[in-house]
Automatic annotation (TrEMBL):
Key word Oxidoreductase present: yes
Keywords associated with the record: Copper, Metal-binding, Oxidoreductase
Pfam families in the record: Cu-oxidase_2, Cu-oxidase_3
Domain Plastocyanin-like, first and last residues per copy: 85-193, 219-331
PANTHER family named in the record: FI03373P-RELATED, MULTI-COPPER OXIDASE
Family matches, as CDD domains: CuRO_1_2dMco_1, CuRO_D2_2dMcoN_like
Protein's recorded name: Copper oxidase
Keyword presence, GTP-binding: no
Location(s), subcellular: Periplasm
Species annotation: Massilia soli
Length: 464
């Protein structure tokens, strides 16, 4: 795994770690840094150039640069990659610098940037800098603005990052194939003034989708709508890392959509406002509180909120089939169909046949059944109280008291204060949980894997 702290130790770019690989031998090119971990990496503090408050890319990382004559130089390598979608499943994708999506690029408003793009794909490519104001010849539409980048060649893009905001990059050459294979990345242009709309935690990720047959490794690139893997940054829950947040932190989450459909992104436990789009920051007078924002194809939304409610809060796409993983498109609905009378007969022909779906699909979350190699079970993921029954576009915001500003380690499951967990009501039960007026004062994290117990204090209904 590449550590940016090692790469830029003591704010210097002279030494690189053994995990850094130069893909191009020419000394005139900046290093093509490669990441070999699918885990969320710590923010890259700027070692030189103008100061800014860095983002954290969910299950991703930020691309280091070098300064040359006042220009920030980056090196992207377009290449086939292997991406772990979640533990137990890998996919043969195309991406940049060892991963799909590629690394996030962070610059500051007014920076002159120079991006070297080396093509190691089996066909030509290009890069479009989605949402940027730049010279027409740098816009990256092959055939229209530039010749396509041939195999084994390196092209240079150079422009000034003219306006702050959140953007994306992706090919505009054989676009349907290359984006279906995972070629995309995030771009953040920070404002000149680091105090402008400053937040304590700033997360970003892309929405993407793949159609990968169970047991196979490579996406079907001609799929239009029937995708079976819906992902945050090419990761499906439970492989998506949590967003770790300090209690009362001001938080920004930037989400870009490069799938073929819209996604209503929903947050539990808090309200937020939409503060940014691909077009820039939204005027404060135009904002209103929401708990869901719909992100259309090719759009970006930046949302902000104060994390004043401790706990483990769900954050997901509200299209329910986008949180299921590899669901078969042709599976019939069997709710209400009694199958037990035919089970014995079927088992004589198919010994491993199981009844499923006649009472709903919830049992699928806990069912251990044989799957083809390299296939994710649908409706998976386990929490402190059992199966979560979610996959795909789903993660957890873990809001905790007392986190250090730079602490992004998973704190484990939330330990609920007494009287704050839903409980079973039994007929004649006279014991109800004692109300807790300030649960945040007792909020703390359980250790990973620790069972969370609910303590119920009896209250006598007669007032004794």
């Amino acid at each position: 795994m590449v550590s940016r702290r090692d790469f830029f130790r003591n704010a210097g770019a002279a030494a690189v770690t053994t995990a850094v690989v130069s893909r191009v031998g020419a000394a005139s090119l900046p290093e093509a840094v490669v990441m070999d971990s699918a885990a969320t990496q710590a923010p890259l503090m700027p070692p030189n150039g103008r100061p800014y408050n860095p983002v954290v890319t969910l299950n991703g990382w930020t691309l280091p640069w070098r300064m040359k004559d006042g220009v920030k130089e980056f090196h992207l390598v377009a290449e086939p990659v292997v991406r772990e979608i979640a533990p137990g499943m890998k996919a043969n994708l195309w991406g940049y610098n060892g991963q799909s999506p590629g690394p996030t690029i962070e610059v500051v408003e007014g920076d002159r940037v120079r991006i070297f793009v080396t093509n190691k794909l089996p066909e030509h490519t290009s890069i479009h800098w989605h949402g940027q104001r730049l010279p027409n010849g740098m816009d990256g539409v092959s055939g229209l603005n530039q010749p396509a980048i041939p195999v084994d060649k390196t092209f240079v893009y150079e422009f000034v990052a003219r306006r702050p905001g959140t953007f994306m990059y992706h090919p505009h050459a054989d676009e349907m194939t290359q984006m279906a294979m995972g070629m995309m990345g995030f771009w953040v242009t920070h404002p000149k003034n680091p105090a402008f709309q400053r937040v304590d935690r700033d997360f970003c990720f892309l929405l993407n989708a793949y159609d990968i047959d169970p047991g196979s490794f490579t996406p079907k690139v001609n799929t239009m709508l029937d995708f079976n893997l819906w992902t945050f940054n090419s990761r499906a829950f439970p492989g998506i890392d949590p967003m770790v947040i300090g209690l009362n932190d001001k938080v920004r989450i930037r989400v870009g959509n490069l799938t073929m459909t819209n996604h209503p992104i929903h947050m539990h436990g808090h309200e937020f406002t939409v503060t940014g789009t691909d077009g820039g920051w939204t005027p404060p007078a135009s904002r209103w509180p929401e708990v869901t924002t719909d992100i259309a194809v090719g759009q970006m939304r930046a949302i902000e909120f104060v994390a004043d409610a401790p706990g483990d809060w769900a954050f997901h796409c509200h299209k329910s089939h986008h949180t299921m993983n590899a669901m078969g498109h042709d599976v019939p609905t069997l709710i209400g169909v009694e199958q037990r009378d035919v089970l014995e007969k079927i088992n004589k022909l198919v010994p491993d046949y199981m009844i499923m779906g006649d009472k709903g699909m919830a049992d699928m979350a806990d069912m251990e059944m044989p799957l083809p190699d390299n296939t994710l079970p649908m409706m998976t993921g386990t929490g402190p109280f059992g199966g979560i029954g979610m996959g795909g576009m789903f993660t957890v915001m873990k809001v905790r008291k007392g986190l250090a500003r730079d602490d992004y380690k998973d704190p484990g499951w939330y330990k609920h204060p007494a009287g704050t967990v839903a409980y079973e009501w039994k007929d004649g039960n006279t014991a109800i949980p004692e109300p807790v007026s300030a649960p945040d004062k007792q909020a703390m994290a359980a250790k990973p894997g620790e069972k969370v117990l609910q303590v119920v204090k009896p209250v006598n209904h007669r007032g004794h």
